[in-house]
Amino acid sequence: MNTADILEFVDEASRANTGKHLNDLQRKIIEGILNRQKYSDIANSYGCTAGHAKDVGYKLLQMLSDIFGESVDKGNLESVLERQLNLNINFGARNTTNFGDSNTINYINGCSELPTPTPDKSRSETPDFLNSTNQVKIEMVGKLRQLGLKDEQIAEVLGLALEIVKQID
Predict the structure, then answer these.
(1) Which candidate among 21, 36, 46, 74 keeps its CA 20 to 30 Å from the CA of 151?
(2) For residue 158, how many other CB atoms are within 10 A of its CB?
(3) Measured between alpha carbons, how far is 168 from 51 in angstroms, rounded to an integer?
(4) What is the 3-state secondary structure (H, E, C) of 104-126?
(5) On the CB side of 124, how many CA atoms lie within 13 Å of its CA?
(6) pLDDT digits (tens, 9 = 90+) for 19-39
(7) Environment class of residue 85 by beta-carbon count within 10 Å: exposed (0-12), middle (13-18) or buried (19+)?
(8) pTM above 0.90, yes or no
(9) Quick check: 46 and 28 in contact, CB under 8 A?
């Protein structure tokens, strides 16, 4: 995925969660971080002070942490975005970037072949294991609702009964 697609994904995630699009400096900061640039280099290319770029960058990374539900910093931005793009939830009606209002979930595969799941025989499906697995799914319900999915879609994606999804606040 190229930088323009990544910026559009982050911009739409920002708009969906905060009601605001990224500004030009925020876009430059994301692009600069992905290109391993220092804040001073980003500031020079944008035309502001390094201190201002660093302040805006800090607030941006905090906002992305809130949006994606995991800690985001300059060192892990690329891996966080990669994970979020693997769960590519479509936001707006843009046919060219595949961000439609369909609220479907697509899988982006970076490999030449689809992986074949291999059951982990060393891990038994004990009640503790099943409870922790269901807890993770339950925690995802709120995030998926924030992104505009309906309870029926969430139940299907997570493999939970619709009644269970509807009971979760």
Answers:
(1) 21
(2) 17
(3) 43
(4) CEECCCCCCCCCCCCCCCCCCCC
(5) 3
(6) 999 999 999 999 999 999 999
(7) middle
(8) no
(9) yes
